């Protein structure tokens, strides 16, 4: 059984930073592309960032470029996103996802975590 577990969310102020982690189990982590998505109340889940397998590149939504940094540690089966200069519009539930050829579409990913809440106050 594949499990993805997010952690690191919380309540912060505008301009603060958070580091989210996604711990994976039940899959060969290094074979999967990984992504972060977020969903705010009343909105669809949207792409945040992705990191490819095999030392591949990264991809970011325009809204987070220059502020968020995605990374992965295949030895620890863990993906991260460092989120700096947080804004109220970053408030959402953040989900990690794994897929065989993931990119920026939710349908590219086969497995999802249950999410971690990030709230940014003004």
In short:
The protein has 122 residues and is mostly beta strands. The chain has strands at 3-7, 10-13, 18-25, 33-39, 46-51, 58-60, 68-73, 78-83, 92-99, 111-112, 116-121.
Describe this structure in words.
- The chain is built from no helices and eleven strands.
- It has 122 residues and is mostly beta strands.
- Strands 2, 4, 5, 6, 9, 10 and 11 form a seven-stranded mixed beta sheet that branches.
- A hairpin with a 6-residue loop joins strand 5 and strand 6 (58-60).
- The protein is globular, with a radius of gyration of 13 Å.
- The mean pLDDT is 95.
Strand and helix layout:
Layout: E1 3-7, E2 10-13, E3 18-25, E4 33-39, E5 46-51, E6 58-60, E7 68-73, E8 78-83, E9 92-99, E10 111-112, E11 116-121
Parallel strand pairs: 2-11
Antiparallel strand pairs: 1-3, 3-8, 4-5, 4-9, 5-6, 7-8, 9-10, 9-11
Number of strands: 11
Strand fraction band?
Answer: over 45%
Task: Compute the separation of the termini in Å.
Answer: 40 Å
Q: Which secondary-structure class do the elements indicate?
A: mainly beta
The coarse silhouette is globular
Indicate the mean pLDDT.
95
- Low-confidence parts: none
What sequence of helices (H) and strands (E) makes up the elements?
Answer: EEEEEEEEEEE
Number of helices: 0
- The biggest beta sheet, please? 7 strands, mixed
Radius of gyration: 13 Å
**Helical percentage:** under 10%
């Amino acid at each position: 059984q594949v499990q993805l577990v997010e952690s690191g969310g919380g309540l912060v102020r505008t301009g603060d930073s958070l580091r989210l982690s996604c711990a994976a189990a039940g899959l060969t982590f290094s074979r999967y592309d990984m992504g972060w998505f977020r969903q705010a109340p009343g909105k669809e889940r949207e792409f945040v960032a992705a990191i490819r397998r095999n030392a591949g590149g990264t991809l970011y939504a325009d809204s987070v470029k220059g502020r968020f940094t995605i990374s992965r540690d295949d030895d620890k089966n863990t993906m991260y996103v460092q989120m700096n200069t947080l804004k109220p519009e970053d408030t959402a539930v953040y989900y990690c996802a794994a897929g065989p050829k993931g990119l920026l579409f939710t349908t590219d990913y086969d497995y999802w975590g249950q999410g971690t809440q990030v709230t940014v106050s003004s």
